[in-house]
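Q: I'm writing a short explainer about Rho GTPase-activating protein 19-like protein for a general audience and would like to include a description of its predicted shape. Could you first generate the structure from this sequence?
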Amino acid sequence: MNETECDIVEKLRIKNETALHELVKMHLSFALDLHNDNFETLFDSHPLVEKSKQNPNGSKKLKNDDGIFHCELTEEGICRLYILIDFIVEDINITQEGIFRKCGSAVRQQELKYKLSHGTDVDLNSGEFTVHDCANVLKACLAELPEPLLTDIHFKLHHIISDLISPSMSPTTRDNAQKKRLRILQLFMLLLPTSVRKFVQNLILMLHKVTQNCEQNKMDSRSLATLFSPHLLCPKNLTAKDMQKYSGVLSDELQFMIDNVEELFQPPKELITDVLIELKKCNEISKSTDNVLDTAYSFCERKAGDKNYTEIELAVLYAQLHNMPDNPWKQKLLKRFNRQNGGLSPVAVKKSTPGKRVIKGIGNQLRKVGHNLFSRSPKQMKLNKETEEIDTDDDIIDTNETEQTKETETDVKTTSNGTQTITESEQIFV
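A: Of course. Here's the predicted structure. Afterward I'll give you a sentence or two in plain language.
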């Protein structure tokens, strides 16, 4: 399988396996020319044939057998079977005549099955077991699976594919039908679980290598397909009558896979185009929902809220200082407060409307009222006769505590020594 195409498909499988399966099924429906209703029936759990009353191969696990025989194939079981495959494909073994056909020793095979089933280390190069022993144990493991390696639910699909080819077709039409058949099988392989698909690929590659040495071992693709199709493609509940009916069709199917294994596990070009589009969509969705950016934005908002809270509390403290009686201690505290605040008076909170706060400098209010409230130099704080009226709302400081007010109502008169009074009705915080 082309490495680049494999990486593209596997990348989408990791990001969104459901999307990949939907794309594969969509391309399968196009290739088979089936509508939605007819297409979905291919993937139901009911096989094309009726179930036999009893499974001839048996579906129960053998007593005291907790390994890879008579049970579903697991990751660990697949790894143990790779030991057999690696031994069979060695040059000295794959050329042995009658491989997968000759029986070998039943006693040695039973011992090998026991060791593989219980995870015991096996040294196949020690000469204790022959290649025929290993080949028959591998075949027996596949035969004893509760479900065929290529699954029951795809049995109908293989039956439909077999109808694509007819002996009466012209060479050109037959060639086009074979290309379509290959494209359908390529898509079908992508629906298998990753570990199973890789194992099937290595298994069929092994069978293909056997056929390449058919002059020595006398085993061609047709012979191997006849031996392995019941274990790879046929449902375990087939009756003897059904087995005879479908064995030829499924043998043709497996023979085609063996002869075209180099292209069988390559994804179709049309699918790659759609996979690239889907990957682009996944990347765009990932960028639009970046949690790091959202978190940073929320952090800035929280910091801004802390700053506003500090300014309000400073204004409250400043107002409390001015509520103290006039004495040297008050002047000392005000001087120290202003020095710590950088020479700037804190802000006050303006309540122009209920529930709304506006920040305003308290220094402006105090200058409007009269600097004589906290200054010993009356000459610097003369007010004009028509002093600007101070809005009551502008002078309210939100303190969350009891506020003290002082109302004065008098006339402004300027005397000869420069003293002054307040002419308007005003409400201030002192």
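A: For your explainer, you could say: Residues 291-322 form the longest helix (32 residues).
Q: Perfect, that's easy to follow.
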